[in-house]
Amino acid sequence: xxxxxxxxxxxxxxxxxxxxxxxxxxxxxxxxxxxxxxxxxxxxxxxxxxxxxxxxxxxxxxxxxxxxxxxxxxxxxxxxxxxxxxxxxxxxxxxxxxxxxxxxxxxxxxxxxxxxxxxxxxxxxxxxxxxxxxxxxxxxxxxxxxxxxxxxxxxxxxxxxxxxxxxxxxxxxxxxxxxxxxxxxxxxxxxxxxxxxxxxxxxxxxxxxxxxxxxxxxxxxxxxxxxxxxxxxxxxxxxxxxxxxxxxxxxxxxxxxxxxxxxxxxxxxxxxxxxxxxx
Length: 279
Hints:
Layout: H1 2-32, H2 41-48, H3 50-82, H4 87-99, H5 105-116, H6 121-128, H7 142-166, H8 170-178, H9 183-211, H10 215-221, H11 228-237, H12 242-278
């Protein structure tokens, strides 16, 4: 009876996951091979066209750069908030970071045009200070997309990192200091390794989310930097190439899953090595 009751509680959630996530993915995979004459024709066209391969490369390059920058800036920001002595100020800055989720991504992205545009705040300041003779191109290129995606996704790294830092046992750090370890050694040999899984998880989540970003690349890229999401929009809404769109989505899904398993394997190896070192 208890087991049946547990399944009764889990059944609505299971149905939601199946209908909202699993069935659409399965449908996408089926559409990608929906050609009785040649099931893999869409994949052949995809891999035989250099333009499509370039789109995938650009998408992964921007996603990787976004994950690295979010991990770097996110760790510094989370550690800075964690190091504050005043709990009131910690809550204030955490609330400031969390409030970004309340603001529309569309509004935040258009705000960057005001800041980064040729007549934006940065270029006008540089021109008035005679640092440059002409406006610097900061949008409608990969730099603009990178700035926008880092701005949108940075809180996803900061908040879990702060939670991991706050959950550390302070007695470990105090014991290391009492044994004569310097603050730098305490940080690199105790604090950083214990917060590394949260950093890796947050960076991986940012990487995966960037792969499917649409609004920010479409606005700050200005159709000059093609990414997978913008190309898929053209396939579906402009030229109605559903099979090619499904093939591109399936390829992206497969590469992402492989990278995720590779990341999990590396994380498992590092955890086992850390346990062996501790023992």
